[in-house]
Amino acid sequence: MNDLFKDMECYAKEANIPIMLPDAIMYIVNFIKENNISSVLEIGTAIGYSTLKMASTGASVVSIERDRERYSKALDNVNNSGIKDKIELINEDAFNVDLNGMFDLILIDAAKGKNKEFIDKFKKNLNSDGYIIIDNVDFHGMVGNSRMIKSRNLRSLVRKIERFLGYLESQDEFVVRKVDIGDGLIILYKRGIKDE
Ligand SMILES: C[S@@+](CC[C@H](N)C(=O)[O-])C[C@H]1O[C@@H](n2cnc3c(N)ncnc32)[C@H](O)[C@@H]1O
User: Fold this and answer.
1) 2-137+176-190 CATH fold
2) Strand order in 103-108's β-sheet?
3) pLDDT surpasses 90 at 140
4) Whether the predicted model's global pTM rises above the 0.90 cut
5) Nearest CA owner, ligand 1 atom 11
6) What's the start-to-end Cα distance of the chain, in Å?
7) Does 54 contact ligand 1 (Cβ within 6 A)?
8) What share of the chain is helix, strand, coil (3-state, %, to 5)?
9) Closest-lying ligand 1 atom to the alpha carbon of residue 46
10) Could you read off the pLDDT of 66-95 as tens digits, one per residue?
11) Per-domain residue ranges of the chain
12) Residues near 189 by Cβ (< 8 Å), separated by ≥ 6?
């Protein structure tokens, strides 16, 4: 598996495909082990790097990727991993996917301006004591500094993340934990189920 992960890291770098930073995925792998998480839904497979890292804990992972080429690459990687029985890959826009399954963890690592929409769509698939983790909430240190950003598109994206963080502060359905690791993680769990 180590060689496969190294190959994937090189491929992602060469092909300019964003994958989770090492300390962030390591944190999530430990989080899965410490919280006895046995089922994960991932939005945003890319080439299957975080998918395989999470499945290597023994958890089963369903992962959704809309890009055909990345999905195909992820499928090759999963087929070469020796743990393909743990993983289901779906090549579709997540907004067109309706799942019946229930999950202990939902990892959102897809379109960064759509975090709230992904939560709204998939929270029905979260077990009552489950967790949602969202990656890149610092967005390379730009979140909180959107006024300084010259590019309009980038500014608009960063503002969406800022609005999302504002929304999290104002809602009371989930307890919100910020973890300053990688590019910033947010962990959510339902209020009233466990200690806050
Ligand atoms: C940051 S990459 C995922 C990286 C991956 N989780 C990892 O760490 O190995 C984000 C991926 O989400 C996909 N994506 C974005 N919006 C999506 C959507 N609505 N449905 C499915 N996939 C989406 C993109 O095509 C991209 O490959």
Assistant:
1) Rossmann fold (3.40.50)
2) 87-91, 60-65, 39-43, 103-108, 126-135, 185-190, 174-179
3) no
4) yes
5) 44
6) 37
7) no
8) 45, 20, 35
9) 27
10) 999 999 999 999 999 999 999 999 999 999
11) 2-137+176-190
12) 129, 130, 131, 132, 174, 175
